[in-house]
Design a protein that fits this description.
Blueprint (H helix, E strand, L loop, with lengths): L8 H15 L18 E9 L1 H4 L3 E5 L2 E5 L1 H16 E6 L13 E18 L5 E15 L5 E16 L13 H32 L31 E9 L5 E3 L3 E10 L8 E7 L1 H8 L6 E2 L8 E9 L7 E11 L7 E9 L13
Parallel strand pairs: 1-4, 1-5, 9-15
Antiparallel strand pairs: 2-3, 5-6, 6-7, 8-10, 10-13, 11-12, 11-14, 14-15
Helix pairs in contact: 3-4
């Protein structure tokens, strides 16, 4: 009696599916929706005002071997609205996103601007259609009361390494996996929206505790009625969480970098905040030949690790300059990235770069 040749086909399909999952466990997939939030709704009514520069922001990337314009501003606005609908009592937006005007009588108007967006591919992992990239999104939120007074300003910063899968467009494919790029922007915007919402309870508490009393003593005689002072702006963030110093050392210590020369970059970082910083990283930008000198030796960004309050730590990054054809002025921009807290800005080191010494040709022995 012959067995059914199709009886094992479902098992074969299941095996293929499991192998596919195991192969893709470290690759980002497009966002299909926002996860359900366990945090309670805040009893606040919010109006968003997205700046024109934010809404018009786009970023062109290489997707499937073709240029693709990521609608950064549109994705940020939609994501902030979606997160707000889950966390606020009501949320609305001013034109062109919505029809609201000003802050609600019992809430806040939040003006959102996008200061920087960068998407920098750094390495490819194995196949050419899979690579890692750094996503850098820097925004600013200004909180206003119903009278239009700015109460606080809070920076919002996101810097993460992401894994992307972007297959090349081929004769067998009819579309490009651009949802990978859109999902990456949505992830960053969702993180910043939640960071911004985390500021509001402190702001609301400060405004309520600092508001003038409703019961004031009656004025005596013809003395003018004293007008209570307006509430002062609430400073949500006070200053950078770390301070750092840098020093660049070349092999012969003549302060002139030569092609092929070994380099050492020292970064001394001090946590000047009153709390532990979970993680910090060193990021390098600037003249490509100078940045590549360190990327050839050490993966970027370079981790510093956890920094306790008041702790000081020195990171040593080694590099080697590649071939240099002609003399030039180089600039190395060093930044410290924090998982939380205000970043300290950047340091810039300017140096002279020259071709390396020409190797001497071996002389033939004379007979």
């Amino acid at each position: 009696m012959c067995s059914n040749p199709y009886s094992s086909f479902p098992i074969f399909l299941l095996s293929v599916f499991l192998l596919f999952l195991s192969a893709c466990e470290k690759i980002s997939i497009p966002r299909l929706g926002f996860e359900s939030e366990s945090e309670p709704r805040l009893p606040l009514n919010i109006t968003y005002a997205f700046s024109d520069s934010l809404l018009q922001s786009t970023h062109t990337v290489n997707a499937c071997g073709l240029p693709y314009s990521v609608p950064v501003g549109d994705l940020i606005a939609k994501t902030f609205m979606k997160v707000g609908m889950k966390r606020f009592q009501t949320v609305q937006a001013e034109p062109p996103v919505g029809q609201a005007t000003g802050a609600p009588p019992d809430g806040y108007r939040i003006v959102l601007t996008l200061n920087q967006f960068a998407f920098d591919p750094v390495t490819r992992s194995g196949e050419e259609d899979r690579f890692q990239a750094f996503v850098d999104m820097q925004m600013e939120a200004v909180f206003e009361n119903p009278q239009g007074l700015a109460l606080a300003k809070s920076p919002l910063m996101y810097h993460q390494k992401v894994n992307l899968w972007t297959p090349e467009l081929s004769g067998q494919s009819s579309s490009c996996a651009t949802a990978q790029f859109d999902g990456t922007v949505e992830n960053a915007a969702e993180s910043l929206a939640k960071d911004m919402i985390g500021v509001l309870p402190r702001l609301n508490q400060s405004v309520q505790s600092g508001s003038p009393s409703q019961s004031m003593p009656a004025p005596a005689g013809n003395m003018p009625i004293a007008t209570p002072p307006p509430p002062q702006p609430v400073q949500v963030e006070t200053g950078p969480s770390v301070q750092f110093r840098t020093k660049l050392i070349d092999a012969n210590r003549n302060l002139v970098l030569e092609g092929g020369e070994a380099l050492v970059l020292l970064i001394e970082t001090t946590n000047v905040s009153g709390s532990t910083l979970p993680s910090a990283y060193v990021e390098l930008r600037g003249t490509p030949v100078l940045v590549e000198a360190f990327k050839r030796v050490a993966p970027m960004p370079v981790p510093i690790g956890e920094l306790k309050a008041g702790e000081k730590r020195t990171a040593e990054i080694r590099g080697r300059l590649g071939p240099v054809i002609e003399s030039m002025q180089g600039e190395l921009i060093i930044g410290v990235i924090l998982s939380e807290g205000l970043p300290p800005g950047t340091h810039s080191i300017r140096v002279e770069i020259q071709p390396g010494p020409t190797p001497k040709k071996p002389t033939k022995p004379t007979r």
